[in-house]
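Memo to structure team: turn this sequence into structure tokens by end of day. - J.P.
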Amino acid sequence: LIALKIIWNEVVLMRALRDMNLPKFVFEDVPLFLGLISDLFPGLDCPRVRYPDFNDAVEQVLEEGGYIVVQMYETMLTRHTTMVVGPTGGGKSVVINAFHVKIITMSVIELYGILDPTTRDWTDGVLSNIFRDINRSVTISLGSCIHRYILFDGDVDALWVENMNSVMDDNKLLTLANGERIRLQSHCALLFEVGDLQYASPATVSRCGMVFVDPKNLKYKPYWQKWTQGRENEVGISAFGQSIFY
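Reply from structure team:
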């Protein structure tokens, strides 16, 4: 019984190290990391957990042209802030019902609002308004689960994102210039879609779950399938593709 308990603890530790770190690595580093895991836990293996309903939904969405990954789902189960990182064309865009904020086109004042020093009048920003609205209490019927997301699309620059650090950590609080404090509720989460992290500070990165989307993982088949699906009415295209690549 003691031996089984020790093995189970090792399985839990190995899976935590593997599943929480694997999404962060670039294509070339994955085999190196898995090699280290094998050296640390020789002879120990644990198949990846399958989420039947979720996996079936993912496969259906992928057929319809969406891009959702199980790794991102698992990361979001453990973090309330997730960054999806990768170059253009890697498949970062995910099909979600989200508030989409084009942060690179706005100033800090436009995002968070401003307090007039003379009149003390408060002018709400785009992000502060959305953040307040999305975190209002929602009525959830029995058996249902509603999740709401704010999706930031653009560079993660310390100029504006430092104000979000208190939201990303365990405090989950956005403090505005007028003294208002808005708490991130359990049904809400933050998503960042960004090409790279060259402008992000370690303080910000350490507060987020990371999923790196590498185009090298896709290879050629998704692009070919997408191209042929858009030309289903053209005679011989599908059969031609099957005969050459499969």
